[in-house]
Amino acid sequence: MIIKDLIKAFASPTVVIAGTGYLVDMFDLFAFNLLRVKSLKSLGLDPEAVTAVGVNIINAQLAGLILGAYIWGKLGDRFGRTRVLLGSILLYSITSLLTSMVQDPWQYGILRFLTGIGLAGELGAGITLISEEFSDKRRGLGVGIFIILGFVGVVLASFVAQTIDWRSCYVVGGLMGLALLFLRCRLHESILFSSTKHQTGIKYGGLTPILSNSGLRGKFVQGILLILPTVFVPQIVWSLSPEIAKAKGISGIDPATVLGFGYTMVIVGDFLAIYLAEKLKSRKRSISVFSAAGCVFFLVFLFCPFHSANEYYLWSSMLGMTFGTWVVGSTVIAESFGTNIRATAATTIPNFSRGCVILMNFALMALKPALGITNAMTCVGAVIFVLSIIAIYLTKETYGTDLTFVDGQKLKDV
Fold it and tell me: Within the chain, which residues score under 50 in pLDDT?
């Protein structure tokens, strides 16, 4: 039964159209992580500057994600989910094309900041649209397929990054986005959203309704902390893999290969997480299983000795099992908030979580001189996994939740 429902989710036009856009979104989001070393070296930076400048550019992109999350989330709840999907893909496609022409790190950083603003709208609007279209007990499948398609985009980006030069890679991402823009015009607005947008006395979008309510504020913070490990692994552990491998005495590690293998395992783990959530009829229990697996694989990765690059690739890719938390957690986030603020929550929470990488980078750089990169990574990772475990414990079960509500009120005539 679950397999049949999974196939139906694959066949949904909304999932396919939104999901292919998220594929391009993730392609562009991880482009710099994949091209960091070769692109900065081609701009004339020495190896030491590649790490420092690279971290600054990543931080600029993440700052764009935070700002964009607020903008697109508010627009999604006020004017519709489909309009956000159109606007976001247009912005990041144009900035991706412009990135292919940068001549210095300053231009690079500015364009990645603008790209981050555009990329921020894709995830939350897509999750919200799909969540509101699917039935209460099967929306997790639709959201899961949507997210998995995004991870396919990272695997594709890894292949492209190893096949063509870095400037051409940004061109490919930009052109794919513009091509999909026309496909996006076929998306229909959420019926749930359309049925509520003309009601009076309801606050639509923005963080004020969330932050001014203690219950919603708690859910907001829990959502950010819950998915932190799934941000930490690709943005920190995998992206800095050449430096980590060097500390372990292994050379020749390619970030594109690490991300390619890692996200291949992510896709496998996501299917298992989706299946387990449906089988157990519990999103929280599925998240707990994959969070525990992530903790175990993180410890093995850090403390087991590796004797070859292949061993490094194998165990770093196993960290992808952590992402069962992201794929199921994203559905939990969408199910935890009313229709009038759902796009805001589904957009800001994952992007604010991504934005926490800025703090992770600062902590890592501060600890690295005294502890070395491996021990510094251990300290930062330990804090992140503990915070995530606490958030999972506090999170309420949402499987089968009826989404026809706004700020705790039932909708009329839906």
Answer: 408, 410-414
- Cβ–Cβ under 8 Å, residues 141 and 50: no
How far is Cα 346 from Cα 332, in angstroms, rounded to an integer?
10
Tens of pLDDT, residue by residue over 166-210, are: 999 999 999 998 888 777 777 777 666 666 666 656 676 678 888
Phi and psi at residue 23, in whole multiples of 5°? -60, -50
Q: What's the CA gap between 401 and 332, in Å, rounded? A: 9
Cα 100 to the chain's mean position, in Å?
Answer: 23
pTM of the predicted model, to two decimals? 0.84
- With b for 16 or more beta-carbon neighbours within 10 A and e for fewer, the 6-27 pattern comes to beebeebebbbbbbbbbbbbbb
Q: What mean pLDDT, rounded, does the chain reach? A: 85
Question: Quick check: 263 and 159 in contact, CB under 8 A?
Answer: no
DSSP states of 389-401 as a string? HHHHHHPPP-TT-
Q: Which amino acid would we find at residue 114?
A: L
Closest residue by Cα to residue 262 from 247, 241, 290, 242 = 241
What is the rounded distance in angstroms from the CA atom of residue 316 to the CA atom of residue 233? 9
